[in-house]
């Protein structure tokens, strides 16, 4: 079976939450990028990526989140990541991005 | 596995815990399907940071499929996996244009991040994750050798 991701939108305070499920690789990262672009273009520039159900992240997925963080900050917003599994966070850590992104255990923590 | 890799990395006479060979079509759906299959084999051997190995594997296979084969589903990529005492040995073969991946410069992730770049992180990740990576081209076949040893991964201390 090919990779799929599912993205559900919700809200937490001023934040638009993208609840992502699945594996983010070169096959599926376009879907994440497209959704992030839609959300940011609609004016929602404070975003939380809920990643507790993301089980794999390739460099394509990292790239999608870097671009989105940059786009949000250019519009005076922010992008945070919640619930990321350590095995997935290791990819951010290897790139030295642990301090560049804000990681939280839960959406509630990220939305404070 | 190519004899030159066997000799160079002293792989002769090793009694592997697992030896498997695969062939996949150079399309995204097969790459991700096969990655899942690989994960199911690896998970039986309690390999630390196996997810990182799959990231590196995914990077290389996707590069071949995209750049060498332009996602031509008629093209095949051959993979040989061996495991011994939690170390993974992989050889990947393709018949695309010769391209020595070991000579590709890894871009600085910090510089890429500062530009908000969507790409350019793969090569850096490969060099961080893999203990050894080697390449040779012979008779229109490219051979990439990978060795993964979780104990050798060093997480950097710099922060963008």
Index terms:
heterodimer; A: 112 residues; alpha/beta; 34% strand; globular; B: 160 residues; five-stranded antiparallel β-sheet; 5 strands; 25% strand
Describe the structure.
The complex is a heterodimer of chains A (112) and B (160). Chain A is of the alpha/beta class and 112 residues long. Helix content of chain A is 38%, strand content 34%. Chain A has helices at residues 29-41, 59-74, 86-94, 107-110, and strands at residues 5-12, 15-24, 46-57, 78-82, 102-104. In chain A, strands 1-2-3-4-5 form a five-stranded mixed β-sheet. In chain A, helix 1 (29-41) packs parallel to helix 2. Chain A starts with a strand and ends with a helix. The model of chain A has no long low-confidence stretch (mean pLDDT 95). Chain B is an alpha+beta fold and 160 residues long. Chain B is built from five helices and five strands; from the N terminus they run H-E-H-H-E-E-H-H-E-E. In chain B, strands 1-2-3-5-4 form a five-stranded antiparallel β-sheet, covered by helices on one side. In chain B, strand 4 and strand 5 form a beta hairpin. The radius of gyration of chain B is 16 Å and the shape is globular. The mean pLDDT of chain B is 92. The A-B interface holds A 1-3, 23, 25-27, 33, 56-60, 62-64, 66-67, 69-71, 74, 87-88, 90-91, 93-100 and B 28-29, 31-33, 35-36, 49, 51-52, 54-55, 58-59, 62, 66, 109-110, 112-113, 115-122, 124-125, 128-129, 153, 155-160.
Write the layout of secondary structure elements.
The complex is a heterodimer of chains A (112) and B (160).
Chain A: E1 5-12, E2 15-24, H1 29-41, E3 46-57, H2 59-74, E4 78-82, H3 86-94, E5 102-104, H4 107-110
Parallel strand pairs in A: 2-3, 3-4, 4-5
Antiparallel strand pairs in A: 1-2
Helix pairs in contact in A: 1-2
Chain B: H1 3-8, E1 18-25, H2 28-42, H3 50-68, E2 76-84, E3 87-94, H4 109-114, H5 122-129, E4 132-138, E5 141-148
Helix pairs in contact in B: 2-3, 3-5
